[in-house]
TrEMBL record:
Protein name: ATP:glycerol 3-phosphotransferase
Protein family: Belongs to the FGGY kinase family.
Stretches assigned to the Carbohydrate kinase FGGY C-terminal domain: 260-450
Keyword ATP-binding: yes
Length: 501
């Protein structure tokens, strides 16, 4: 193979990395750079779109040059989702900083939609709840805060896009204005049944169709590089996909029964589904990817505080300065030093609860303390809370008629904790499989690009997936943990107590 490499860009919220992946699926070169977030007002979170481009092009240039441009068959992109940016079609200059997925400046507009009782039509059309997280209310804010924004957008002078579209536009010298299905599905403007921009949603959010990109499959010939300093012209971009979706693809190509959980500050749990079905109102339904032949859907639950709850507990106990290695040592040693938490639970609803409860008013609680409770009980309760919250989302997923759980596939920093992996397997009563690679999103996007190159079927791609280390459940312990899980549910109800009083 004269061009064996795919260079995949993983454009995240806090850093951007590029990796070169060879024909066996191995990472042979990589580079990364941190990205800055700005918080100009409470609740506002934004990112300099041009700085994001510059960092992305720097890591791409570095990896392409290290690997040798003549060996690069294609580029692939996985990216932070929901973040929205507007730019001038003439010249590509941004209208303002990109509005991060974390930004809640569009909350008043969302509140109005809820007051106008638009929730149900939005959810049944797009699969998503009304929330400032999604791109559509952010795009509306951008147009409202740009002189003659609506009129100029309707005339096609303004482009509105997710980060994949922004990157592609600039990678192709302004020639291609396209995004992929997975990113489009997170805007809240796509009809999940037709997979097209939806007229009713465009009208509701006040977004002219002329301002939006063409939606393409995630594995697709999106365009070729043109005019990027230091990067050869003519390299095809063959995949673009949201990062969480790319990780699911990188774990197992979305085979039935393989659910993934990315453990980080928060956790995204995603299950692949063959059809969209929006009956489970506690979770978001989304498009996982379109591989050029077919669309795969996803049922997703986002939990805001998992690793973050652990960090909070450590800080509250006065150990916030421990470095990463010390934390891992602590978090493995302390929970094993006791047989159980003796009924102590920590519900880390620190800014409200996410999936499957969705209660902004909920607040964190520690309950079940007795005279004998100590640091080990608290640390163990914080670790167990991660596993319990994931179990809550999976419980909600079980209501879906096509749901299957064979293995929970996991990735992210906290999965290095072997005690936590075993506890998660015992609690769920199913194997937990941790991916051997830290570059799962980039790898998933890279595999989609390989698919677009042609010549490989899914069995060939499966052979390129990284290995997993698996923890098998102890079923006797699983049975005992069902009692503790009921105690957890009771604690969750107490965390939600404030909302109803
Ligand atoms: O930047 P990450 O990797 O935390 O991902 C951000 C998510 O895509 C937002 O939905």
């Amino acid at each position: 193979m004269d061009k064996p490499l795919i260079v995949a860009l993983d454009e995240g919220t806090s850093n951007v990395k590029a990796v070169a992946i060879d024909a066996r699926g191995e990472v042979v070169a990589k580079a990364s750079l941190p990205l800055r977030l700005a918080t100009p007002k409470p609740g506002w979170v934004e990112q300099d779109g041009e700085a994001l481009l510059a960092a992305s092009f720097t890591v791409l240039r570095q990896v392409i040059n290290e690997a040798g441009a003549r060996h690069v068959a294609a580029l692939a992109v996985s990216n932070q989702r929901e973040t929205a940016i507007g730019w001038l079609r003439d010249g590509g200059r941004p209208l303002s900083p990109a509005l991060s997925w974390q930004c809640s400046r569009a909350a008043p507009f969302c509140e109005q939609l809820r007051r106008d009782r638009q929730n149900e039509i939005i959810r049944s059309t797009t699969g998503l709840p009304v929330a400032p997280l999604f791109s559509a209310p952010k795009m509306r804010w951008l147009l409202d805060n740009t002189p003659q924004g609506q009129a100029r957008a309707a005339r096609g002078e303004i482009c509105l896009g997710t980060i994949d579209a922004w990157l592609l536009w600039h990678l192709t010298g302004g020639e291609q204005f396209r995004c992929d299905y997975s990113n489009a599905a997170r805007t809240q403007l796509v009809n999940l049944h037709t997979l097209e921009w939806d007229d009713a949603m465009l009208a509701l959010f006040g977004i002219p169709r002329a301002a939006l990109p063409e939606i393409c499959p995630s594995a697709w010939r999106f365009g070729v590089t043109k005019g990027v300093d230091g990067i050869a012209d003519g390299i095809p971009v063959l995949a673009m996909v949201g990062d969480s979706h790319a990780a699911l693809y990188g774990h197992g190509l979305g085979r039935a029964g393989g659910i993934k959980a990315t453990y980080g500050t928060g956790t995204s749990v995603m299950a692949p589904l063959p059809t969209p079905d929006m009956r489970i109102t506690q979770l978001a339904t989304t498009l996982a990817w379109h591989d050029g032949a077919r669309a795969v859907y996803g049922l997703e639950g986002n939990i805001p505080h998992t690793g973050d709850g652990l960090a909070w507990m450590l800080q509250a106990m006065g150990h916030g300065t421990l470095d990463e290695a010390q934390r891992l040592e602590w978090f493995q040693r302390l929970p094993q030093s006791i047989a159980s938490t003796d009924g102590v639970y920590f519900v880390p609803a620190l800014t409200g609860s996410g999936a499957p409860w969705w209660d902004d008013q909920a607040r964190g609680i520690i309950c079940g303390l007795s005279r004998g409770s100590g640091p080990a009980h608290l640390v163990r309760a914080a670790l167990e809370a991660i596993a319990y919250q994931i179990a809550d989302v999976i419980e909600a997923m079980k209501a879906h008629p096509e749901f299957q759980l064979n293995t929970l596939m996991v990735d992210g920093g906290p999965t290095r904790n072997r005690w936590l992996m075993q506890f998660q397997a015992d609690l769920l009563g199913c194997p937990v499989a941790r991916s051997a690679t830290a570059e799962l999103s980039a790898l998933g996007a890279g595999l989609l690009a390989r698919k677009a190159l042609g010549g490989l079927n899914d069995d060939d791609l499966l052979a390129l997936l990284p290995d997993h280390e698996t923890w098998q459940p102890d079923m006797a312990r699983h049975a005992r943990l069902q009692r503790d899980y009921l105690g957890w549910r009771d604690a969750v109800a107490r965390a939600h107590w404030k909302a109803s009083h």
